[in-house]
Task: structure prediction
Amino acid sequence: MIYDFFYNLTGSQILAYIIGSLLPLFAFILPFALVAVLLERKVSAHMQDRLGPMRVGYHGILQTVADILKLIQKEDIVASPNDKPLFNIAPVLVFAGSYTAFAAIPFTSAFIGSNIDLGIIFIIAITGLVVAGILMAGWASNNKYTLLGAMRSAAQIISYEIPTILVVLSLIMITGTASLNKLSEMQTGHFWHWMILGGPGLSLQKFILIPFMIIGFLIIYISTLAEVNRTPFDIPEAESELVSGYHTEYSGMKFAMFFLAEYANMFAVSAIVAALFLGGYQSPFGYLGNTFHLPWLIPIEQFFWFTFKGVFLVVVQMWLRWTLPRLRVDQLMAVCWKYLIPIAFVNLLIVGLITVL
Amino acid sequence: MAADIENKVTTTEKLKTEEMILNMGPQHPSTHGVLRLELELEGELILNVKPHIGYLHRCFEKHAEAMTYPQVIPYTDRMDYLASMYNEFGYAIAVEKLLDIKIPDRVEYIRVIMGELQRIASHLVALGTYGADIGAVTPFLFCFRDREKILSLFEMTCGARLLYNYIWVGGLSHDIHHDFLRLTKDFVDYFKPKIKELNDLLSYNKIFIERTANVGILPLDTAINYGITGPMLRASGLKWDLRKDDPYSIYDKFDFDIPVGDGRMGTVGDSWDRYFVRVLEMEQSLRIIEQAVAQIPEGDVTSAIPKRVKPVVGQVYSRVENPRGELGYFIISNGSVNPFRVKVRGPSFVNLAVINELCKGHLVADVITILGSIDIVLGEVDR
Amino acid sequence: MSQYFKNIWSAISTISIGMKVTFKHLFVPAVTIQYPDVKLELPERERNRLYVNMDDCIGCDQCSRACPVNCIEIETVKSLPEEDLGKTSNGKKKALWVTKFDIDIAKCCFCQLCVFPCPTECIYMTDVYEFSEFKRDNLIYDYATLSPEERVQKKLNYEKFEAQKAAEKAAAAAAAAAAKAKAQESKPATPESKPENKEPNAEKKEGKVEAKEPKSEGKTLNQENKTDKAESKPADNESKTDNQEDKTD
Result:
């Protein structure tokens, strides 16, 4: 719909495509990243009985703007033994990887970047690009600690994609579609039609599926937490561990890109989990636009609900970060391979059996 | 370009077959001070750990020879700066033994209250920083928030928050403030639920247990051979506390338990035991403070302070139970106003020696876990 | 196998308990204050920057001796008998011009040992803790109230006085010697010369008695300390010989 809107506005297909693809970036991700950094600092501060940034702007609202300005004007240090082409491309790849995932996420019913049928599979494949970027960053820094950190991070991301895919497979089995757009449309109505509560309709199958859907939700939430390197899985970026992380050698704007990419990634995975299990952009209570007979209000409401669910899951991620200690690398792998994957397999089998019977 | 890549590949292959020496340098966010640890690694396994100390050496023992006996007390403060009251306590007891003077009861009670409050404050730092090293940042801030209350109690009494110069030879520098006992009782009531909160948040957390249980197991015979004292020794299973086994001051009048590690989350003597013994010790210190506040007599705290401290010729060794172990002072006097020699047996110095035994066979990430559980203060290691 | 499920269960339960604790703390008001705008009220015994009330300082040097880091430097000049320096606030008469009273606050360890020996309580610790400077030399606080010219002047005055006294003494001694010589020549004259000799001494003694009173407390302690240090050295030797004897035994 938005594409048609721009096509009518500009009269050229290419321009409409370009604006349509840049729209999520500037209208949503960048403002969200700014807000998310501040939100994290404020949430962590209030959990620790303190106040967080208070000086810049009213109660510190403009803090991230000040941080970004500072990062932009810093000197861009590229040490001479570093592998220059890899060093420069790495942050771009990481950022591009996490941003491209937004192409297949439905923000509202009126706007989706790319309405392909393989939505989920596309997203999971694209996160492989992030791994390549991280490995490049670790190698090109010419530092044995960053190399170790990058390898650990790559191993972590690749291992935790498996439980994600298993849970997604179980969902595909129930609904028969891999496109996030169609999934969100299917969960229309009130909140008891959401996938976490068994899916649309009111059949017996739905009620039996509820516990397995909840387990699937938890598994996919934990695995996506590991994919974005958040505590308790943040060995690659921990400051107090021996290895200081794959983005130590970066300064200035490149560091800002890593930083932004992390928060964009956090929102992307939260949005995916919300779209899969919590109804995407659907409202839990029915639409005000329907009750007031204002059809143009509905996409705006949907956008609001989508953002609300995404931000809620991001806040839960932050909550977990400030409560839990860090897992050691071998324990991290043990959690993935010994706990999450067997449970996800069993879940998949049972869900498959239920849908068949 | 291809030649460069080939060279880099061959050099990394050469590195892999040897043992790698990794330096956890003096500047590191987790070594609790300026300590340099030289690790010999094979892959991720540790073969050898060599601590290099001396970055904070300030010649305390030599300074003490140039000062008069009361002037040494600000210097003793600065050795273990997180438990200053106990440093002064130990020194004052040693010199009072040399002088052979009797101190009023009120002074003894106040010294015990200050010492136990200081023990709680020191353990809070140890537990908070330990959690922060493992990755849980929130308990660190909670511990420091509680410690602020203790420091404001100290500030009300003697004017300083960290380095007090309060316990003098023969008495105290000031009597306590008239609000002090009431506020101490309030603090004890405030702090009991906070220990429970700390346990909920950190001690019984599964991830924390996974990180610390069965890591750095210290068998009891190794501990005794190395001369380990304090919570480390108690965590390995031995019930040895100088407050009960060699009582000084008036500790024999109070009723309290000695917590011992029992290996409930892993093995006896692992890092979780060392951590949890400190939590239990804080509870016992609260008991002592309650009893002392209830029993404290009236009196004059400055009456027994000698005008000029000039002990007889002789020597004395006296020891107290620091939050980190047995703090011993060996003072030789030659009859003048300056001590001839002051030798300090710092518990952190002795406890640090065992880190090689503890780290063998563990991964690199465990070094920080083990170092945090030993709880060293570099000021005491290097003096 | 049951360990497996126990692990999962304990992980979920302990993590939820931890999350509940942190959630509750979201609603607790902050315990911090916004520092430069709001400052903490410090207790009355707070130990921060030193202050010396020079009107009360008698120049006894006790604080300088008590300091463990030697951050106080005091130089005094004796006053002439006819000068009146005034009284301290507890009634003692001052007799020394304090020409130098430097406290290097950068060296000060804030231990409060200098506050206790002061007989007039003129040195004390205030609650000022924000006194950073751009140049390190600005941290040497000069408390003496005499201007530089006055300091030099006082010293010269005293030296002149001493020289005069010495001259008078020499003259008196010469006069005494002359009188003695005369007395030996004429014996009945001797009882007269002694009161002559004694008069100038008596004048000086009267002047000095007043000056000695406020100093006496300080000075005797000084002298005792000095003699102690002098004693300590032979005592050192004694103890060393004792140790050697013990070793030979």
Notes: The mean pLDDT of chain B is 87. The radius of gyration of chain B is 22 Å. Chain B is about 50% helix and 10% strand.
